[in-house]
Amino acid sequence: MPVLVELHSLCYATADGHAVLDHLDLAFGDERCGLVGRNGAGKSTLLKLIAGELAPRSGTVARHARIAWLRQDVDARADATVADALGVAAAWARLVRLERGVGTPQDLAEADWTLPARVDAALAQVGLGGLDPARPLAQLSGGQRTRAALAALWLDDAELLLLDEPTNNLDGGARTLLARLLATRRGGAIVASHDRGLLHGMQ
Q: What is the pLDDT of residues 87-116, one digit of tens each?
């Protein structure tokens, strides 16, 4: 099994010196792994270290795969759109300009004409089929924003997914959908969660 990320003697402490992780040695491969522990145990911190959003006090994180991750709180800035949540805002705007006849030669050279079909498919996978990528995120419910963020993970097709409490804003149907997508998707996943049903499905 290929190793996607390796942690060597990883240490991390809070600003006041409290040790959260101490000389951690771990490797994650092409598999589904569940992270469990009480609140404050360091699950989210570990995911942020793997993603590169935090720097360790000492030790190293060796990434051998493209990583995408879902945070606990999905951004809903007033000017953010569904395309922003999907991570395709620039590419989508390029296609819109071309369709309106105001695109540049560079737009034409860089246009991804497969994007609309891939976006539609990703949104349909999470129960948001037909959602306009230009729609403001602020108009969506918390559950819909989380679904849009999940769609971004599948659209990105990263080799390793990091999911931090992904069922927090999902109803029962969406939780079932997430479990099915994790079970059928190729690649590795590290899931930090208190959801026993989701974690049982990680086995």
A: 999 999 999 999 999 999 999 999 999 999
Closest CA to 140 of 151, 32, 53: 151
For residues 80 and 60, give the distance between their C-alpha atoms in angstroms, rounded to a whole number. Answer: 34
Q: Is 54 helix (H, G, I), strand (E, B) or coil?
A: coil
Helix axes 142-156, 172-184, angle to 10 degrees: 10
Distance in angstroms (rounded) separating the CA atoms of residues 103 and 126? 31
Exposure string for 49-82, b = 16+ CB within 10 A, e = fewer: bbbeebebeebebeeebebbbbbeebeeeeebbb
162 DSSP β-pair partners: 69, 190
